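Q: Could you fold this chain for me?
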Amino acid sequence: MGAAQDPGTAATWTAMVSRAYDHARPAVRFRDLTWSGHELLDRAGGMADWLDALDLEPGAPVPALVATSADALALVIGGAGSHHPLAPLGVRMTPYEIAAVVEGIRSQVLVVQHEFAELGRQVAELSGRRVEVLPEPRGSTRALTAEPDELAAVLHTSGTTGRPKPVLMTQRRLAARARVNGRLCALDPESFYGGSAPFHHIAGLGNIAVALAAGALVTGLPRFTVEGWARLRDLGTTHTSMVPAMLETLHAAGQARHESLRVLQYGGAPVRPGTLRRTYEAMPGVRMLNMFGQTEGSPISVLTPEDHREAVAGRTELLESVGRPAPGVEIRVDDAGPDGVGEIHARADHLFRLDADGWLHSGDLGRVAEDGYLYLLGRRTDMIIRGGENVHPLEVETVLASCPGVSDVAVTGVPDERLGQTVVAFVVPADPDAPPEPAVLRSHTRARLSGFKVPVRWWFVTDLPRNANGKVVRRRLREPHEGGTRDA
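A: Sure. Below is the predicted structure, expressed as structure tokens.
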């Protein structure tokens, strides 16, 4: 290869990765395995050769059951650079759920890692596909190339309201995302990224793709555990991503410290002021970012490290927002009502699923404050209409989550003969033996929200129904909730 060029100027994600790892320094580290940059690209070339031999349709997505590992990284890079874009699927879903997604993909081949061979066999039987098990990585000197409008990878939405939908990530737009996200997170060749989100998720492969484009040293976990976090800490990782619930788990276990961590990116929910303060104590100098986005496009907005420091200094209301538009992003609130709330639309070069005018319809309801900060109020399909008044579950949940004694909470609407719908809360107590009094919860909520937004019933439960990506599945919140305790 010739002299190294700046990966940030490349037109494709494949070119960014190829340029970033044109070196002999460590690039991938999983347990006792370490590959240099050259070895990573060689093994990606070997995966490309293997995919070629499967007689696949060029350009068509290849469904795959793989977990975060060196092999998976080589497979994704090799697939993107050989016209065989990978479509990783959730390995924790049932065979029937996976088969329903596979049936929507043209490929007649399902690629699986060895540990998922039996799951793959069941999926193949249900979907009429052929299973191919990943071989041991072998080297190849082939060049990995791609055109800007070719697919780099395909991710699927989490499917909380139906079958997951494919999101096509073109080389051009994934490269643009890598540049925006990489700069926000200060990722560079001196960084060491280690995440724990599922590989098929935008927080998994989506963030790993950004780290790879920046030329960072990369590791990861198949799933989050306190023990796994300790391994990432002991390795000396400098960057990671998680959801606030993971932070809460680490603090509860007394394992949140991480002396080498420089950047912690999170999303999916706001972080509590107390949790933020404890995080700064456990991770000296860490820079916190809340990235708002979705599989269809991310980041849309960002709550910056400076915003988080302001929140700790007293502006805690900032933590209820998802920040201001990310670089290059134009945001508008569509069909806003008198309260300024409407569906968030966004337009930028790094977003994936767009309408004819280039806008991403997020499906999230929100409002933009006078100072430019974006406040989310939940999914459009989640909105509760109580006696003609709109209640946004996320707004109520954010308030309840700040109440002492609440570990987790979800709010939903239930039918009501007089009002159409009424508001009900499902609360996971911090101490199951001493749940907070409903009167305390009601008072806490009423002090911050209008009366029609206050839940009329409270159910204390051991956990909330979530999908494989950790999102609450509201349609599974039912009264009476099995194992729950009702307090009106």
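A (continued): The first strand starts at residue 26 and ends at 30.
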